[in-house]
């Protein structure tokens, strides 16, 4: 029994830098997990979860940019085709 | 370089906006016939505008059937004609304004419309517009020209064809 390791089946921390933390499931860094709240400089230093390049989906950013572009496009159409081309006394020569 | 697929989407969107802006302006120039003010008006001597055949006696000149030339001198701080007496043009006519200045840079803006240009000493700005129904337009200087710039204003009267008469043209 004394030979049993501290961790079981990788669901508790493995120190960062360990080979198992490179591609495995989420592994919290045991040194940063405490009950004393956040202390400046006490952020987790280990890799919590490693994801691929395209696995990060900033959907909120995409939606914000889409809304922004729709507003810009609509304002341009209104400004040019309604306000400008629909305006009086346009210079034609 | 690996570009995230979302980034490709908004990059394409930004390019599409730019292409759209250029396309609409091109349509305005080619399809809708919007013209830019250029240097086709030529140059004059700002010190001797009084000797100029047209600017010496500014006003409305008939250039053809239903076509008129209006010569306007913008000076500190009035339009001549325009301020002390309104510029008069007939309704449903094509009018070319020739605007210049003997002193400093002024602006010539028909208020609330797309017609405006700078009036630069020595340079004649020409803009052609088509007037419709009889109405009145305000005229403003929209380039700061001195202490009374804010008071530099005038009026354009679009006179009904039935009331238009030869006394309203210089020539």
TrEMBL record, chain B:
Pfam family, one: COX2
Residues in Cytochrome oxidase subunit II copper A binding domain copies: 65-171
Subcellular location: Cell envelope
Family matches, as InterPro entries: Ba3_CcO_II_C, CcO_II-like_C, Copper_CuA, Cupredoxin, NosZ/Cyto_c_oxidase_sub2
Predominant location category: other
Keywords attached to this entry: Copper, Metal-binding
Coiled-coil segments: none
GO molecular function (one): metal ion binding
Domain of life where this protein originates: Archaea
Listed name of the protein: Cytochrome c oxidase subunit II
């Amino acid at each position: 029994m004394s030979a049993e390791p501290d961790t079981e089946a990788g669901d508790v921390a493995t120190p960062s830098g360990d080979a198992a933390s490179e591609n495995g499931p989420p592994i919290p860094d045991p040194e940063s997990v405490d009950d004393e709240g956040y202390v400046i400089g006490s952020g987790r230093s280990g890799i919590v979860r490693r994801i691929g390049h395209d696995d990060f989906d900033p959907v909120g950013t995409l939606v914000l940019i889409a809304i922004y572009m729709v507003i810009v496009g609509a304002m341009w159409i209104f400004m040019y085709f309604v306000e400008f081309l629909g305006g009086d006394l346009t210079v034609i020569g | 370089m690996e570009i995230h697929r979302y980034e490709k989407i908004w990059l394409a969107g930004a390019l599409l906006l730019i292409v759209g802006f250029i396309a609409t302006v091109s349509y305005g120039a080619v399809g809708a016939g919007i013209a830019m003010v250029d240097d086709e008006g030529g140059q004059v001597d700002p010190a001797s505008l009084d000797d100029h055949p047209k600017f010496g006696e500014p006003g409305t000149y008939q250039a053809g059937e239903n076509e008129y030339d209006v010569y306007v001198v913008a000076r500190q701080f009035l339009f001549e004609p325009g301020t002390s007496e309104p510029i008069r043009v007939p309704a449903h006519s094509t009018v070319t304004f020739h605007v210049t200045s003997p002193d400093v840079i002024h602006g010539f803006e028909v208020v609330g419309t797309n017609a405006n240009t700078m009036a630069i000493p020595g340079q004649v700005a020409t803009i052609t517009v088509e007037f419709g129904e009889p109405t009145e337009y305000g005229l403003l200087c929209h380039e700061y020209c001195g202490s009374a710039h804010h008071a530099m204003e005038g009026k354009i009267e679009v006179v009904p064809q039935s009331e238009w008469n030869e006394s309203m043209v210089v020539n």
